[in-house]
Amino acid sequence: MTKKVLIVEDEFIVASNLKQVLERSGYEVIGIAASAQEAEEHLQRDKPDIVLLDIRLQGERSGIDIARKLKSEHIAFVYLSANSNQKILEEAKMTYPDGFLVKPYRKKDLLIMLDIAWYRHAHSLETKNNQEIHVQKQITEIITENSDNQQKLLKIAEIMQTCVPFDLITSGLRPLNTGQYNDKGYLRVGFDEYQFIGEKELLTITNLKRPALSVILANSHLDINTNIYNNDPVNEKPNVPSLQKTLIDTFNIQSYLVFPVVLSNGQSFHYFFYSRQKNIYTNIHISLLDNLRTGLATLAEKMIYGENLAISKNTPVHYERKLQGNTLNYPEFRSIIGNHHLLLGALDLAAQVAFYNTSVLILGESGTGKEKLAQAIHLLSPRKNAPFITVNCAAIPVALIESELFGHEKGAFTGAIEKRKGKFEQADGGTIFLDEIGELSPEMQVKILRFLQEKEIQCIGGNSLTKVNVRVIAATNRNLEKEVAAENFRLDLYYRINVFPITLPSLRERRSDIKELSIYFAEKFCSEFNKPFHGIVTSMMEEMIAYDWPGNIRELENVIEQSAILNDGKSKLELKRTLTGKATIPVTTPIKTFEDVKNIQAETEREYIISVLKQADGRVRGANGAAQLMNIKPTTLESKMAKLKIRREDL
Ligand SMILES: Nc1ncnc2c1ncn2[C@@H]1O[C@H](COP(=O)(O)OP(=O)(O)OP(=O)(O)O)[C@@H](O)[C@H]1O
C-alpha cells in the first residue's frame, strides 16, 4: 500500500527536496504546508498516513500545536527539526511523536525513520483500539449489572486504571453541594487494592471538621471543561484551601485530569483522575475518555438515579480486594511485592501490553525485577502455555551467542558435533527475554533486527530461513539513547524494541516498599531454612530503609537471606553486616558497580561460614556441626560452600 505523506515545513526548498526524495521512494506526497493553518486545511481535505512535521513554522503556531491534533486523530508523525532548545524538545517529547530527526539528516536516515515510525504507530494503534473496545465492553457490563454504586465505582476504577493511570479517582455532581461532600472515590493502595474515600473517610484522613470542609467546598472552583492540571489548580482564592488543594496536599498529588460528562437532565457529573506523578496526563488520555464518554455518562446517571441509589447499608468496606471471578484478576503479579505508585504504574503498563504481540523494552537498574516482570507479562499473555526463554546477552561469550540464539547445523563449525536448536526456535509460540540487550555486538544487533522485521531466523551453517513465532521482551540497565548517540547501539533496532518501554523504579525511589519486601523475603528464607520467623529487629529495618541499595531488590534479597542463615531460629532477624558500602570486611576498592556489591556480599558470607566451620572443627553435619550452629540444613550449607568455593585449606 502506498503511504500518503503530508509535509509541514516552512522552508520551500527543504520541502520540495523532501517531496522528491519521498516520491522516488514510493510514497505519495499529498501536500506541503508552510504553516499550522495550511496544515489544518490539508488535514480537512485528506487524511495522510504520516506527517513530517517541522517544529518552527510560519505564523504564531508551531508544529507542536499540530502534533496534538494529529495525536488525537491517530495520525503518525515524525518531527524534523533543527531546533535543539531543550525546553522545546521536552515539549515536543510530550506529544509522543512516532519519530524525530534532527536536521541535517541523511536521506537513508529519513527513509528508515519513516519505516520505523509507521511500524511503531501501527502497533500502538492496534493496542489502543483493542484496549478501547475492551474497556467500552466492560463499562457496558457494569452499567447493566446489579451492583451498588460503591461497587460500580470500584469496578470503574479497576478498569480505568488500565488506560488512564491514577492514584486517586473521585467522581460526583457539579456544582458541589457545600453542606455535604457527596463525591465518592477510591485511593489506590495496591496493584488491585483500593480504599474507598467518601466524606467520612476524607474527614478522618485530613483531620478536618465538617464546618472546615464546608468552607473548603465553597471555595472550590468549578471545572467546566475537560482539563489537565500539573499541581497548579487555577482560580484559587489565595490562602483559602480548595477541595483540589486539599486532595493534592493530603495524597501528594502532582497532576490531575478532570473529565466532565453531561447527564440527560443537563446536570454535570465529573470524573477526576489524580496522580502522584508529574505531567502524566496527555491528550491521549483525553481522547480515550472522549471515546468512552457515552458509557461514562450512562454509568454516572445510573449511579446517581439508578435503582440502587442508596449506597449499601453494610458496614463500610475499607480495603476492597477485587471480587472473585473478576476478569481483571492478575495472580501473575502476586509475587511482585510493593505498592509504590511508580511500581504500580509499571505493572499497569505491563498488564496493558501483555495481551498483544508488541515487543516490550523493560528499563531499570540491575536487580529491580526486570526478568520477573518479563515473566509476568508472558504469563498474562495468550502465549502463557508456550515457553518463556531467557537469554542473558552479557553472559554469553561473543563467539557463542549467534549459535546460542539461532542454533547451528551439524558440522557448521569445529565442535558442532550435532545440530542444535537456538533459543529463538526453543521459544517458538512463546516469549524470548533478551536481558542486557545493550551488550549485544553490532553483528548480533543486525540479526535481531532482521528477526524483528522478517520473523525469520537462519541457523549457522543452514541455508534456509525458518519462520518462528516469538514475542521479544528486552531489558537493559543501560541508557540506550546514550548508547545510540555513542554509536554502540543501532538506532533502527532501538526504535524497533522501544515500541513499548516500561521503566522499573530503583529500590531507593520506592523506599516505602522496603518493609514489605523485607518481610516477604524473610518469611520465604526462614521457611526454606526451616526456621520460625519471629520478625525483623527495628534497627535493621531502619537501616535498610535508609540505605541506597545499589543492587536493588537482589541485594535486599541477599541481605535478608544472609540474616536468615545466621539467625538462631529463636529471635528476630538482625543485620549481619553494615549497609553503608563499608562491609564488615575491609573494602580496598571503592564500590562502583553492582558486581562490587555482589562480591562484598559473597565475601562477607564466605568469611562468616569459614568462621563457623572453624568453630565446628571443620564439620558440616551432625551435633555441633556448622549446619546445626547456623540452624540450616547441611545440604544448604554444602551448596553455599560450593558456590562460595570454600575448601578444606581455607579453614
Ligand atoms: N517486586 C518484587 N517482589 C519480589 N521479588 C522481586 C521483585 N522484584 C524483583 N524481585 C526478585 O529480585 C531478584 C532480582 O530480580 P530480577 O532478576 O528480575 O532483576 P533484573 O532487573 O532482571 O536484574 P538484572 O538487571 O541483574 O538482570 C529476583 O530474585 C526476583 O525474584
Automatic annotation (TrEMBL):
Q: Which UniProt keywords apply?
A: ATP-binding, DNA-binding, Nucleotide-binding, Phosphoprotein, Transcription, Transcription regulation
Q: Which residues form the Sigma-54 factor interaction domain?
A: 336-565
- A biological-process GO annotation: phosphorelay signal transduction system
An example of a Pfam family matching this protein is: Sigma54_activat
Q: Which InterPro entries match?
A: AAA+_ATPase, AAA_lid_NorR, CheY-like_superfamily, P-loop_NTPase, Sig_transdc_resp-reg_receiver, Sigma_54_int, Sigma_54_int_dom_ATP-bd_1, Sigma_54_int_dom_ATP-bd_2
One GO MF term: ATP binding
Specify the Response regulatory domain's residue ranges: 4-118
Q: Which PROSITE patterns does the UniProt entry name for this protein?
A: RESPONSE_REGULATORY (PS50110), SIGMA54_INTERACT_1 (PS00675), SIGMA54_INTERACT_2 (PS00676), SIGMA54_INTERACT_3 (PS00688), SIGMA54_INTERACT_4 (PS50045)
- Lineage, top-rank taxon, reads Bacteria
Modification type 4-aspartylphosphate: residues: D54
Q: What is this protein called?
A: Sigma54 specific transcriptional regulator, Fis family
